[in-house]
Amino acid sequence: MSQNDRNSLSSVEVRNAAPQRKSVTISRADLDWASSQGLVGTDQVGKLWQALVERSAATNTGGLNLINLAYYGGATIVLIAMALFMGLVTAQYQAPALVGTSLVYGAAFIALGSHLFFRKGLEVPGGLMFTLAVAITPVFVFAVMNMNGAAPPSTSQELILEVVTVVASVVALTFVRFPFLTMPLFTALWLMSVTITSMVSHGQSWFWGNEQLIVSMVFGVLMTLGSVVIDRRTEKDFAFWGYLFGVSSFWLALTFFDKGGQLGMLGYFAANIVLLLASVVLQRRIFLAAGGLGATGYLMYLSWDIFQDSMMAFAVVLSGIGVGVIFLGIQYHKNKAAIDAAILRLLPAGLRSLANRQG
Predict the structure, then answer these.
(1) How many CB atoms are located within 10 Å of the residue 73 CB?
(2) Which one, out of 32, 48, 229, 338, has a CA that is 20 to 30 A from the CA of 164?
(3) pTM, whole model, 2 decimals?
């Protein structure tokens, strides 16, 4: 076998081992490159690009662009105005007025959302109206509780409001397949973990004073595992907020947890390396960001522990770590496919197949 044949075979192996992504971002320059490689006819580039632009304009319901920025910005303004108005109503007319106002708002959001989402096919503005309806549900329940003599906040009443938000989010998602509706769902679930911890501990310290951090880590793991399951079963990105809350909850709690010395810090470093590997398998940047920050933080801690008696040496080593991180980032960017493939080859077959489904 010639050297060229071996290189070609190696290239094929790398491509086959790398995660099979569901989607990629393509620019006009990519099509021009494909044409220069003989993959697309020169006369087809213009027609193909125009067709892709038109299809993107017709089907794009996510991402950061001017239209969606206007949608989300408008929804945020509505939410602020609603909170201000309802606060004024409550201050002047008390709980019964808040019940009526929240009902009117909720009905209006549902009616407008149904019109935009189902009749007009405008998924983003319609979905945002349903999200606002979910957000106002705990306000309505809060007002009803006040009418019946309850005086929040107490942990049990907070838990009720959080459960109500979860139920409202699930009901909305059953009928409206809009990924942003998972945001209030995962937010409420995270708040539930904090509330339940407070209820169980009764203000007492257990697990060496790290009880909330332990619950937060467990919650983060469960949320992340749930997001993996969701990610494998949905075409739209319903897992984004689950990954964000799950990984953030786990990593922040792990970072602030009392690690008990060098061995604990080494375990922290190992956990962040696992997060970096997970970013390759799951193709999610939140794992890369958390793992990268944690691993870099450990190296900084280690250099301080070794060179704390010499600030000059510590500064030099710290600079070297910074330059090294930048260099590794450049190398990973240049050789991402080969590095990902090499990592995947070291993993069990089950994780490799998961990577192919997640990509």
Answers:
(1) 10
(2) 229
(3) 0.69
